[in-house]
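FYI - complex with adenosine-5'-diphosphate, inputs then prediction.
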Amino acid sequence: MLQAKTNGKVLLSKNALKVLESRYLKRNTFGKVTETPLEMFQRVSKAVAQAELCWGSNTDVKVWEEKFYRMLTALHFLPNSPTLMNAGLSAPQLSACFVLPVEDHLKDIFSSLKLAALVQKSGGGTGFNFSHLRPKNDLLIHTQGQASGPVAFMKIFNTATTYIKQGGKRRGANMGILNIDHPDIEEFICCKRRENAFTNFNISIGIYDHFMNALQVDGDWLLIHPRTGAITKVVKAKHLWNLIIENAWSGGDPGLIFLDTINQFNPTPSLGTIEATNPCGEVPLLPYEACNLGSINVAAFIKQKKFDWPALEQTVILATRFLDNVIEASEFPSLRIKNMVKGNRKIGLGVMGWAEALSKLEIPYDSNHAVETGRTLMRFIAEKSLTASYMLARERGPFTNWQKHASNQHIPVRNATRTCIAPTGTISILANTSSSIEPYFALAYRRQHILEGSTLYESNNTLLEYLKQKHIDPAGVISHIEKTGTLRGMKSIPSSVKALFKTAPEIHPSWHLKHQKAFQEFTDNAVSKTINLPQKAKPSDVHDIYFSAWEMKLKGITIFRLNSRKKQVLDSGIKS
Ligand code: ADP
């Protein structure tokens, strides 16, 4: 087994090493791993520091390389998976998030499919809005045939993804969106109802404010032909809404994206309207745009039950520079994408380890104190990364579309967006912390499917450390959490401790929403968040959450009701 060490300390958990070994470390042509984790961090730091050559002298490169290396090996910040996997290799593609257009011409559809294949091969995820496609059974003028419609075309994208294995590392991910006024919306809302349908897609409905207004007055809603503008059907807004709720309740899909809110915060409106996001929803992008992400392990910045703000500030500044450099260090699958990315230079700095940070601060996740702390934290990160991007603009120039299009940004910044909250599904395993801003899923769990043919077992080290600090005998705790995933029912554990280590299904959905809102307020992209519901939740609970999400001006919303799908990535409790 590989062991990464710095200053004599073992840095990476057993699970992190497993994940690195199976997916991230460089391999030779025979598939044999040829680098250690520390060499991987060196490779990434070096490749990203090389970008400094575009703006400065050779000598600075080594300095930045060392700074980046220290930040990565301390697990204070990790970039998104494609950067870790590909930086420094030949023709590296380093971004996790792409949006590609789907225009209503066969040639254009297949051009986007080809680009999607190239993006997915390199480990990036792709988002599409299928609303420009003419509806199913519409007449095709040249052939006198009938159109297949958005759902049929999405099937082709889904099948392609199944066979593009990202160099054997992981299967690709997509977001499919259809707007609420498309004639095929009913079919789309229900398209994931069958078990195993569209497994490579998350789906979301593009919602307009005027749809929500119609819903509130039980009004009619018009379905409009995207090419001719003709009304194809009049339905009750409530009918579509109930169909959405019913499907989300029974299987998690569809989520919603709120198009008007997203476009209200579009930093470059003169370049077009945003219609889609990346697969997990945290980055709304224009067609052909890409964004590279990175997340700060905020739990690592708690010292004696307080945030070490100066250290956090330094990391935010360095991480912002790192992400801006990644744009230079990256190759892109087409010139069009390259030009869009270089024109806007969007980056997405976010957080992981929020639940762990709260435990260390002794603040229960389901409390106003936690929500306010989240707001303070994200405001800090947003302000410091904005300043860092401003300083980079002075050094390197603002993003070119800022100059050309006098965008929504008032000050010259280097990056059209700086922040987003990604799910950190894999990088949080590498950093050995809780993912994103999610509460703990369980205190011990089995993670399925993440590596082909392999299962990871994880138990919550922060809890065990905490018990040790409080001189609470952990005997019995381990076997209890391995069986049930929670502290519930353990009489020997004080309720104050139980409150600090509640798991996602034990936390009322309204708290999940409040955290999403608090972080969204200071995030210029979006927040990827799953509102976890207990199995017994009703469709009316889903309604309440989806409706409040719109009222709260969130950019999107996703729920998951426990055990509502046969296959789950995470399973609470280890022994069954
Ligand atoms: P990681 O922890 O691997 O860096 P995240 O879980 O934070 O990634 O996801 C960030 C983004 O990366 C997603 O929204 C999506 O755009 C992309 N992504 C995640 N998983 C995949 C995948 N299996 N294939 C392609 N893209 C992915």
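The pocket of adenosine-5'-diphosphate is lined by residues 80-81, 96-97, 123-125, 170-173, 278-280, 282, 293, 422-427 (CB under 6 Å). Confidence is low (pLDDT under 50) at residues 1-8.
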